[in-house]
Amino acid sequence: MNSKSWMLIFAVLVLALSPETMAAAPKKAVDVPFGRNYVPTWALDHIKYFNGGSEIQLNLDNYTGTGFQSKGSYLFGHFSMKIKLVPGDSAGTVTAFYLSSQNSEHDEIDFEFLGNRTGQPYILQTNVFTGGKDDREQRIYLWFDPTKDYHSYSVLWNLYSITFFVDDVPIRVFKNCKDLNVKFPFDQPMKIYSSLWNADDWATRGGLEKTNWQKAPFVAAYKSFHIDGCEASVEAKFCDTQGKRWWDQKEFQDLDAQQYRRLKWVRSKYTIYNYCTDRKRYPTMSPECKRDRDV
Ligand SMILES: *[C@@H]1O[C@H](CO)[C@@H](O)[C@H](O)[C@H]1NC(C)=O
Ligand SMILES: *[C@@H]1O[C@H](CO)[C@@H](O)[C@H](O)[C@H]1NC(C)=O
Fold first, then answer.
1. Domain ranges across the chain
2. Residue whose CA is closest, atom 12 of ligand 1?
3. What is the pTM (predicted TM-score) of this model?
4. What class is the 30-292 domain?
5. Using one digit for the tens of pLDDT, what is the confidence trace for 13-44?
6. Is 108 a catalytic residue?
């Protein structure tokens, strides 16, 4: 066969495969430098910049950790960054990536990575606060070593749900359960935050493992700072970008079959803790857990 017919076959294959494979993964993240959307929050000298600011490293030592936050506040959207977590002996350190509103009845969407002794697995803890209520922890192990390479961590927040992704794999879905009287974040813009700090009073095996300061500085590396959200301007609390809100379109309102399969896989193989099944701590199951069970 000549190259033209190969190309034809290839094109037909791509067309045949695309409806399934392209179903509902969030839009491809666009890499932008750190400084475009983010600023350091504290301990500015503990953040190091590389490649013209397209990569950064947070440093934690026995003096301080550090962190950064988005300049803007956002109401719905898709937010991601690539992180390479603290390698080696990281027990006691916590690296966090989260969205949070600023007031007291606050909304928050959390990724927290709990470090461990060399060779022992990290824990990824997620949580969702709505209207000031939290106590919605879930904990998983990852299916790879998050200190070896960069991996993408992202949040898709729309009117229907909040979905946590690790690379392209959905690891948690918090559905909008307004009908069950569960508050859902819809009117308070959130900023995006990340930080690296010492939490050896609770993080590793409930605080049993202490941070080994001989190994300091602890370094977490970041790149690919992607934000595609509805930005709330200073004047307007509710942003108005009709037509821009691709995240509310049909294909993002629910996971597709393949995504549910992946979520189930994470559930069955990597879950350590789920507040929805913790009858000891929560004798009465939170209403949204009914939907969590459907997963
Ligand atoms: C922090 O660590 C350095 C180097 O190991 C040490 O010299 C210093 O005393 C430590 N400081 C504190 C406050 O523990
Ligand atoms: C650390 O490793 C221990 C032993 O494998 C494990 O029980 C624990 O869940 C791991 N993670 C954390 C954050 O403690």
1. 30-292
2. 62
3. 0.89
4. mainly beta
5. 444 444 333 345 666 666 789 999 999 999 99
6. yes
